[in-house]
Design goal:
Length: 370
């Protein structure tokens, strides 16, 4: 069996076992070498899985949080407490808090309506399933909008795209965000090469994006994060495509650490820097990038190449922010399921958020079409 024909293990699923419902995750810490599922029977297990990056990536964190609230409701745990624990598991990706809140609201509405706990649990599960479906749908729309944008910006195809972290099927109910766009141009025969940043320190690029690119049969090349500069200088990058964990009202983009340096490089080398994210990643309540809480992770992720395998002197201190923030002026375009914003401005973003996700629009430079 060719690599790209390999079976697809669901990234996240709800399963009703005789002993009760569970949330089953594809354990992303074991990829690419092992496809092992991790079963969450309770909320602390799911919170632990979120913190350890067993399940990860902004849209999927939202879906996981949503099913976590449904799990608490269905199993008769304290739903309010569970929601608080889930929403606080990781701070930067706003999708997590959004997914948790959406299902909690549905649960509260159902509880207030007639007090029937079984019906409230069913309402919570239905809402989580709806979010999951909507994310898959958003992924398809982003893929089409992003591919269209690439063709507009860079007519002729043959794209050499640089990406960072992991933004594919592993982060989504569908084919992902930035990677879904890459997939669309690959299917159309327009992808010449996918440059995959390894994405230190947890190697989401090397472990996960390379795994997804290989399965899709793409021509891809892995590089260390520090090699990106020489790749730009050699004229080998036509566009940068990344996802996002939170986009504030002014259009600032929090994404995996290492994204901001790519935006600076892209601007210097006159290469489009495109962010692809669903509207669930937009946080209109936070005005600007400096207000985003950036998750700080253990220094061991930097000082060790694998748990217990240190590469630094004993006691070395490490700076390990999980994300960085790119200012809107460095972002060529933001692609969402509701359309494209370019240039990225607070007004353009607000306008996009006010249109129905079912329609598509193009804001900026006076363009707007249904
Ligand atoms: O720490 P992670 O692996 O959860 O970080 C994920 C990213 O930064 C992705 O690039 C981001 O979630 C966008 S994917 C839609």
């Amino acid at each position: 069996m060719a690599d790209h024909e390999a079976r697809v293990v669901p990234v996240l699923r709800w399963e009703e076992l005789p002993e009760g419902p569970v949330v089953v995750l594809l354990d992303q810490t074991r990829l690419p070498h092992e496809e092992i599922e991790f079963i969450c029977t309770d909320v602390p297990a799911l919170v632990g899985a979120i913190r350890s990056l067993t399940v990860r990536g902004a849209p999927l964190l939202g879906i996981a949080g949503a099913y976590g609230v449904a799990l608490a409701a269905t199993r008769g745990f304290d739903v309010e407490e569970a929601a608080g624990q889930l929403a606080g598991a990781r701070p930067t990706a706003v999708n997590l808090a959004h997914g948790v809140q959406r299902v909690l609201d549905a649960y509260r509405r159902a509880t207030a309506a007639d007090g029937d706990m079984q019906r409230a649990a069913a309402a919570a599960l239905a809402e989580a399933r709806a979010l999951h479906r909507e994310d898959a749908d958003a992924s398809g729309r982003m893929a089409a909008a992003g591919a269209g944008l690439l063709r507009e910006l860079l007519p002729g195809g043959g794209y050499r795209i640089l990406t960072h972290c992991n933004t594919g099927r592993l982060v989504s109910g569908g084919e992902g965000t930035a990677f879904a766009v890459v997939h669309a141009v690959h299917r159309a025969g327009e992808l010449r090469r996918l440059w995959v940043d390894e994405t230190r320190p947890l190697l989401q690029g090397a472990r996960l994006t390379a795994y997804e690119a290989a399965r899709a049969g793409m021509a891809y090349t892995l590089l260390t994060d520090g090699a990106a500069g020489s790749l730009f200088a050699a004229g080998e990058v036509d566009a940068v495509l990344i996802g996002a964990d939170r986009i504030t009202a002014d259009g600032s983009v929090a994404n995996k650490v290492g994204s901001y340096p790519l935006a600076v490089l892209a601007r210097y080398h006159h290469v489009p820097f495109i962010v692809v994210a669903p509207l669930t990643t937009v946080d209109q309540a936070t005005e600007e990038g400096s207000a985003i809480e950036v998750e700080q992770r253990s220094g061991h992720e930097v000082t060790e190449v694998a748990p217990g395998m240190s590469v630094a002197p004993l006691g070395a201190q490490a700076y390990n922010p999980a994300f960085d923030v790119t200012p809107p002026e460095l972002v060529t375009a933001l692609v969402t399921e509701a359309g494209v914003v370019s240039p990225v401005t607070a007004a353009g973003l607000a306008e996009l958020c006010s249109v129905s996700p079912a329609g598509t629009s193009r804001t900026g430079n006076g363009m707007m079409n249904a």
